[in-house]
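pasting for ref. prot 1 ->
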Amino acid sequence: MVRRSRIISLFIITISCLFVVILSEPVLAQTSLGAKSMAMGQTGAALPFDSWSVFNNPALLSPDELNISFYGFRYAGISEISDMAAAGNFRSKIGVFGVGIHRYGFNLFNENQFRLVYKNRFDHIHFGISAGYFHILQGGEYGSAGALGIDAGIALQVTSSFWIGVRTKNINQPKYGDTDEELPREFSGGLSFNPTERSQLVAEVTKDVMFPASFRTGLEVELFKGFTTRAGVTTNPSTYSFGFGYDHSSWSINFAIQQHNPLGLSPALDLSIRL
């Protein structure tokens, strides 16, 4: 019990330091990737071992020996504004490594992201860091620019069914090329709790100092072995989402629909393969 109290105290101190650093400068909100995250209100800071932790929280990378995932999301059904991503992670003797590729937009404007992640743990504390290179390409004579952003995450497994997680994005305050345009920066903190063996409840707050804080929450229920349904809500912006997924021993597939006011419905789909 004494050791567990020391671990929790260290975790709280670390979170407090990260919170002070992030809120000392303006941040800009980003969304989470993955159909499960989308269906559960764009949560991701405290979803343990999710296939898309490469982007959502590097501290929660899956410990699977090898995991490869693919994702697509279409904003309000418009093909020109779509997200496409792929991610993978593998376990080694010195920790877990992850890679990710993300593309947003179309030929006249697109943003591409390439990400490398490392995650490890100390007892019940999981921690991770990632480096992402962002490249924006604009049509016409506007050209292109790139920047390198650093993300960090930390998570505490309080019990087998209760997790606390935080993530920070672009903490090095990068800018595109020689411009004054900074990459979006974000701080999120959340909780994940399994009331029963077949259900999961998540809640988190994403803070953007330029706008009101966004509250996000979601619920997952396993109806029968391997098949789950999900629902979630967010504030600022106001969205509602639902979805379902099927998890096999060697693969999983997830689908989500998000209702954004006033943009409308946006579908998401992902597939993960475990080797």
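and prot 2 ->
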Amino acid sequence: MPHASINGIQLYYEVAGPGDGTPILFSNSLASNLTMWDLQVEPLEMEGFKVIRYDSRGHGQSDAPAGDYSIEMLADDAAGLLDHLGIATAHYCGLSKGGMVGRMLGVRHPGRVKTLTLADTAAFMPAKDVWAQRIETVRHGGMEAVVDGTVDRWFTAPGQQRIPDEVEKVRGMILSTPVDGFIGCGKAIMAMDMRPSNPSIDKPTLVICGEQDTGTTPEQAKEIADAIPGATLELIPNAAHLANIEQPVAFTNALLNLVMDNR
């Protein structure tokens, strides 16, 4: 299995699609892994894109060192993976934490990004007490202590009934997330405030949000889209936080419209 030595850790990644295809880099949410993007891979391969997915630091098959992480650190990991793969620039798509990483990548490493798709994410998380409590719950009770509440935030109730196999797959991702990785990335999310830097992003940007997302709300998505020059906002009906899984066709079509126009 492919691992890359990036910034002092081993980062797991997978590449699909034609070797000479235009690259798209996907970054996962907190408490998931690269398989959250399974439903996007084939449609993008069919359009000739090289699909690069990786497990964020602290997740999946990547290392999960103890200690606080930062969004800057996670963005540097993404840039380091592009270096490892010999890719100068790529389209970028990230959801939730992955969207935060994408915006920081656009600020710290703007030359590496062709476009940004920022899904179900926020520029700032004001409820510090909620995050602190969530981190302590995981520290003492493991991921089992938060899995039910997380699934209920991530999918609408009808979605849970309609796609039970996908929901169970996500439940497995949550339960397999290392505690140190969840805490490290949770601390990064708590400390993040990208409101001042969002206006400096100058890449074509699409902001996507499920209309029923209560974790990173449509209002927070609009705040990002309004702050980034030229950004567009697309709200996806009948979807909560994991809009790419609950409504994969609408999500993938929106992404394809951006990357095809900026190929």
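Residues 3-261 form a domain with the Rossmann fold fold (CATH 3.40.50.1820).
The first strand starts at residue 3 and ends at 6.
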